C-alpha cells in the first residue's frame, strides 16, 4: 500500500467506498440490519411512505424493496398496511423498535466512527457535491 499516493483519484474513491461499506455493513449486522434496511429506517423518519416511494428514496429497485421490508417487518422495525384511499398501495411505517435501533446507530455516530478524516463536515460537503453533480446525469446522456 506504499503506492497509494500514485493511485488515480477514481481508484482511491472506489477502494475507500468499498472499505467503508464493508465496515458499515459489519456495524449494521450487529444491530440486525442491512444497508438497505438502514436506509429504509432513515427514510421513514419523517413519517409513513408508500412502498414505491420508499424504493425511489432509498435507490433500491422496487422488486428488491419487498424482501428488505419483509426482514424489517419480521424484526418488528416496520409495519406495512394497505392505504385505505388506494388499496393497491402499501404504506410502510417505522415502529418504536425501528426508531430505537436507528436512533442507537445515529447516537453512537456509528458511520462517522469508521471514517477518519480531519474535517468531517468539509468531507461530507465534498461528497454531497460529488453526488449532486453526477446524479442529474443519471439516465441521460453525458
Automatic annotation (TrEMBL):
Short name of any one Pfam family annotated for the protein: MarR_2
Keyword Transcription: yes
Keyword flag Cytoplasm: no
Any one GO MF annotation of this record: DNA binding
Residues annotated as domain HTH marR-type: 6-132
InterPro entries: HTH_MarR-typ, MarR/SlyA-like, Tscrpt_reg_MarR-type_CS, WH-like_DNA-bd_sf, WH_DNA-bd_sf
Swiss-Prot/TrEMBL keywords: DNA-binding, Transcription, Transcription regulation
Stored SMART domains: HTH_MARR (SM00347)
PROSITE patterns on file: HTH_MARR_1, HTH_MARR_2
Domain of life the protein comes from: Bacteria
GO biological process, one term: response to stress
Protein name: MarR family transcriptional regulator
Organism (species): Herbidospora solisilvae
Amino acid at each position: 500500500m506504499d503506492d497509494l499516493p500514485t493511485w488515480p483519484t477514481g481508484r482511491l474513491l472506489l477502494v475507500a467506498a468499498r472499505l467503508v461499506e464493508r465496515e458499515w455493513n459489519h456495524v449494521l449486522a450487529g444491530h440486525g440490519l442491512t444497508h438497505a434496511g438502514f436506509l429504509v429506517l432513515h427514510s421513514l423518519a419523517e413519517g409513513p411512505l408508500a412502498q414505491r416511494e420508499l424504493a425511489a428514496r432509498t435507490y433500491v429497485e422496487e422488486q428488491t424493496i419487498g424482501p428488505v421490508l419483509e426482514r424489517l417487518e419480521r424484526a418488528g422495525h416496520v409495519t406495512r398496511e394497505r392505504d385505505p384511499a388506494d388499496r393497491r398501495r402499501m404504506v410502510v411505517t417505522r415502529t418504536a423498535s425501528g426508531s430505537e435501533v436507528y436512533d442507537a446507530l445515529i447516537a453512537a455516530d456509528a458511520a462517522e466512527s469508521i471514517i477518519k478524516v480531519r474535517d468531517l463536515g468539509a468531507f461530507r460537503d465534498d461528497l454531497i457535491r460529488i453526488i449532486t453533480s453526477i446524479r442529474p446525469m443519471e439516465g441521460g446522456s453525458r
